[in-house]
Specification:
With 633 residues, the chain is an alpha+beta fold. It folds into two domains: 302 residues, Spore Coat Polysaccharide Biosynthesis Protein SpsA, Chain A (Alpha-Beta Complex), CATH 3.90.550.10; 193 residues, Vaccinia Virus protein VP39 (Rossmann fold, 3-Layer(aba) Sandwich), CATH 3.40.50.150. It has 17 helices and 38 strands. The strands form 13 sheets. A seven-stranded mixed β-sheet has the order 3-2-1-4-7-6-10, sandwiched between helices. Strands 17-37-38-30-29-23-24 form a seven-stranded mixed β-sheet. A three-stranded antiparallel β-sheet has the order 11-12-13, with helices on one face. Strand 15 and strand 16 form a beta hairpin. It is elongated, with a radius of gyration of 27 Å. About 1% of the residues have low confidence.
């Protein structure tokens, strides 16, 4: 999708670590509807060693905002007050970083449902400040009536957009000074965090515009005036497009409660109920069960000791991490690794341009870890496969890249093997992401294009309906069994199934999942292979695989082809990769893939095809970029 907003528009949100799943969901909804916009998250929490470089967007630490009385604010304010108090400081930080820009704030619990055309138009027409009123017409007969707006503020500061003019920056500085001391929930004295102060913004900023489109900032406080419908063309509000819904006070763990701030809206809300159910699924899929257990670093209830706006019960007790092994029954959670999804070369290129700051930080993290003068060394991290902290071995075998000073860079993808399970970086990440994103049930039917490996053994112990295979050459019959094959760990095993990915022996719609780890590059005709895998998948089935991938180009890199007479024509220096059933000769690499493959998957009939990009310091999923390819039937 084309980006509605150019490089002079910057979006941001504010949250603590425990709300990260909401921030990720907000960003995904922005990108889905408005293109690959520039997006930041300001983290109102302690650094705490969190794996922030794993996120697919830049993070602004609290300490970088230059707040004079930050230490005192962290002691005095509760979590709601502190998160709202830093808002003008983030505006000023982004103004300085992006001169002449328009900076747009959105609460993390917002879901964007369509293109924000009116915001873009207002700034194109010269607006310097755009706000959304809580209500757009008199509301005296509702239980949450217009008198409440005189208490909480005329506009809802879950959304605020400002242009970086000198006048606006002076107002932002005033706003920041006020919120250092007076960003409190004190309704009897006429204050409600940052919102009451924002009542003055139209008086201080001449070119302030109020959005009178009923599709903006739909929430519990105006649902009595706005009817939400799901139509064939998308979500609507009073027959106008729904721009964004603000799930303020939502309770993900208690979906019968639409908002903890008002009991007037239960789950029986017409089509808004379905929207909320979809939102809950998205937030949970983005790791909410993991992130919500991260303890808040400051005073949850503030100096007063009470916080009615965000009750203590909203913070889940901290739980220990677990692995992908069967549950130990200790209430532990599997750590979440954020995924950046790219559907095309253009989409990836736009994302990469916006992520340069994060990519540089990731590269620095990796190079800082490299041991001087050591050919082999180990690093500490957490192995999700094992479910415990571990050491990970590194060497310079297979390394091809060098730093500017000539120093070799490890091939991170093929190293960082856990000392306990012995799985390398790419295998550990594959298993982690398969379980996280695929959510396979124990009895699901799964095919994997390997059998004489530790990966197959690990999966077969957890999924009894797993089928694996190896390739033994064109003279073997598809589906036949081969005996006495040496396993990669030195043991001999019997009954290895032979399959050729170009002509599989399975019946149509045999599997819910098809998995492949660095095999497809060894297949002469990959288009036949992906057509066969598509045939063998159930509707809705997932094909998840890894392969060498040239992410900065569209066309595949062809290394070798099969001539009409059956001989191999080498177009480049022959390259052989490890093969568990033929360790001496290995397997010839026919190509390195690129974005051409994603289009081929769609042309084959897959409904969706995309690259999943990931990186994690905590789990040592290093190498930029790290990718998996996912296609769903």
């Amino acid at each position: 999708m084309n980006n509605l907003f150019g490089e002079k528009y910057i979006f941001f949100t504010i949250c603590s670590w425990n709300y990260l799943a909401y921030a990720i969901t907000l960003r995904e909804s922005l990108i889905k509807t408005n293109g690959n916009v520039s997006f930041y998250a300001a983290i109102c929490d302690t650094k705490g060693g969190f794996d922030h470089l794993s996120l697919p967007f830049p993070v602004i630490p609290l300490e970088e905002l230059g707040i004079p009385s930050l230490e005192e604010m962290t002691r005095r304010y509760n979590i709601t007050e502190l998160n709202t108090a830093i808002k003008p400081f983030v505006f000023r930080y982004l103004f300085e970083k992006n001169p002449d820009s328009v900076v747009i704030y959105m609460d993390p619990d917002i879901l964007v449902e369509s293109r924000l055309e009116e915001i873009h138009s207002l700034f194109t027409e010269g607006a310097d400040c755009v706000l959304t009123p809580h209500i757009l017409e008199p509301n005296e007969f509702a239980s949450f009536d217009d008198r409440h707006m005189l208490l909480y503020g005329i506009c809802n500061l879950g959304f605020c957009a400002l242009r970086a003019t000198p006048a606006v920056q002076r107002v932002a500085a005033w706003w920041g000074r006020r919120l250092e001391q007076h960003c409190v929930i004190d309704l009897p004295n006429g204050l409600f965090v940052d919102q009451k102060w924002a009542d003055l913004l139209p008086a201080f900023i001449e070119k302030t515009r109020l959005l009178h489109h009923c599709g903006y900032n739909v929430a519990y406080w105006n649902l009595s005036q706005r009817r939400v419908w799901q139509t064939e063309d998308g979500w609507t509000v009073n027959n106008r497009p729904l721009r964004f819904f603000h799930f303020s006070g939502n309770k993900i763990a208690e979906t019968a409660v639409f908002s903890r701030h008002s009991r007037d809206f239960a789950i029986h809300m017409g089509d808004a109920e379905a929207l909320f159910e979809n939102y809950v699924k998205q937030v949970e899929a983005n790791g909410h069960h993991h992130y919500r257990t991260i303890p808040y670093g400051y005073s949850w209830n503030g100096e007063s000791g009470t916080n009615l706006h965000t009750p203590q019960t909203e913070q889940a007790p901290q739980k220990s991490f677990s692995g992908l092994a069967p549950s130990r029954g200790n209430g532990s959670v599997v750590p979440h690794v954020p995924i950046m999804r790219a559907h095309s070369f253009e989409e990836y290129s736009n994302w990469k341009a916006l992520m340069q700051e994060v990519i540089r930080s990731r590269d620095q993290c990796e190079t800082d870890s490299m041991a001087e003068g050591e050919s082999e060394y180990s690093l500490s991290g957490y192995c999700v496969v094992c479910g415990r902290p571990s050491k990970f071995n590194v060497s310079y075998q297979y390394s091809g890249r060098k730093m500017h000073n000539g120093r070799r860079i490890p091939n991170w993808r093929e190293h960082l093997s856990c000392i306990h399970c012995n799985f390398t970086n790419r295998i550990r990440a594959f298993l982690h992401i398969f379980v996280q994103e695929g959510k396979p049930a124990k009895d699901d039917s799964i095919y994997i294009s390997e059998q004489a490996t530790r990966t197959f053994s690990w999966l077969s112990q957890r999924f009894p309906n797993l089928v694996g295979s190896e390739y033994f050459g064109e003279n073997s019959a598809p589906g036949s069994l081969v005996n006495q094959i040496r396993h990669e760990n030195g043991a001999t095993i019997n009954g290895i199934r032979h399959e050729d990915l170009q002509k599989l022996s399975f019946q149509d719609m045999s599997f819910k999942y098809a998995l492949s780890l660095d095999v497809l590059e060894h297949v002469p005709d990959y288009k036949k292979a992906i057509k066969e895998i598509h045939r063998c998948l159930l509707p809705g089935g997932l094909f998840l695989f890894s392969a060498p991938f040239c992410i900065d180009q569209y066309n595949n890199e062809v290394m070798a082809t099969i001539a009409e007479n059956g001989s191999i024509e080498h177009l480049r220096t022959p390259e052989y990769h490890g093969n568990p059933v033929d360790p001496e000769k290995g397997s010839l690499c026919f190509r390195y893939y690129a974005w051409e493959l994603i289009d081929d998957l769609r042309r084959t009939g897959f409904e969706t095809a995309e690259c999943w990009l990931y990186w994690s310091n905590q789990h040592l999923y290093w190498g930029e970029p790290q990718i998996l390819i996912a296609a769903r039937k």
